[in-house]
Predict the structure.
Amino acid sequence: MTRTDEQVTALEAAAREDSASVLELTRDLVRIPSRGGIDPYDPVLDCMACWLDAHGLECRRLAGPGGATVALACEAAGAVPGPRYVLDACLDTAPFGDESAWRKPPTSALIDGGWLHGRGSSDSKAGAAIFAHILARLKSAPDRWAGSAVLLLDVDEHTGAFGGAKAFFEGPAASHIDGVMIGYPGPDHVVTGGRGVLRARLHVHGVAGHSGSSSTVTPSAIAKAAALVSRLHEAELPGPAGPDFPLPARLTVTAISGGEGYSVVPDLCVVNVDVRLTPAFDSQAALEVVRAAANATDAGWPGTQPTYVEVATSWPPYALPDTSRLRTALLSAARDAGLTARAKVAGPSNIGNYLAGLGIPATAGFGVVYEGLHGTDERIRIDSIPPVQAAYHQALLTLLQPA
């Protein structure tokens, strides 16, 4: 059952009514530096927890392996039992980069010409503020929906550790989750899939020696690594997996480290490899390509130890089917809010890939209009906030309809 025109209009009115409060909360969050792995997270968590408490929403702090808080979680329940959906957004941000290049300081939260400026405004403090207001709306009218809605706010996302997501989805509270909507920005697409990723460190061995020796020339790990990099660059990978997954696999060497000073032939060089996966090229296939290149290179360098392939990360590719209730509900709600969003399989991996590995369906991007994501002068269009809120609110009510 879809929402009636009257219900859609009511949700749009509620979003407009909340817009000043959403903007104020977003600005408060942007003013607090929360760069992943750089700034302390307690100030931004305290700001968000204070807002939730003031709106009658009790939140709990989730701890990571080291005991530090890595996320806030807050849940509202409908009048009767039913499905359980999660709204997920991060409160940590990318670094500032060269602050002198910013037209408005990264934590200014200044408004100019209809834009709100500042690091994290788009990724994803506006999303967090929107989701918080939706949860408050749901809590105020529990008789209109069934099941429960969870707000998850991560502060370990931009480090790449995803500690907040792991603390929740791998913890005791993760039972019975029907789907997740992640508040990454951009109103043109609902991200319904993404390429997976295999990340590996290749430990390439040579033989140590003196670079100036007149009698013995030992094989350099760096020279051997260079040969391996060339072989990896030439590896043939499959193209797009089909119309439902139109992106090809990709392999990129992203870092090389080894050697010290000038007079020593290095005996170890480490090569970082990032492989983007598709349904036609999974992690096992990617690992076989990497290991084949390593073995072939080793064969050409007798007298050296074989290359050790260390897998650092592996997430599967995923794509929600056309029949997915989560996908259909959000796309339909976006259209009803006047936004021409289309389903998209994203090139980069995201938390949706991690969730796919847990068997949890997720959308991983639909939100406010933005510019400068992770770059200089990050900013969002203020007038794009209400339709995004209305769309998410409608999608949730569709998914949480009483039986």
Q: What stands out?
A: The chain is about 30% helix and 25% strand. The first helix runs from residue 5 to 30. The chain has two domains: 5-194+317-399, 196-314.
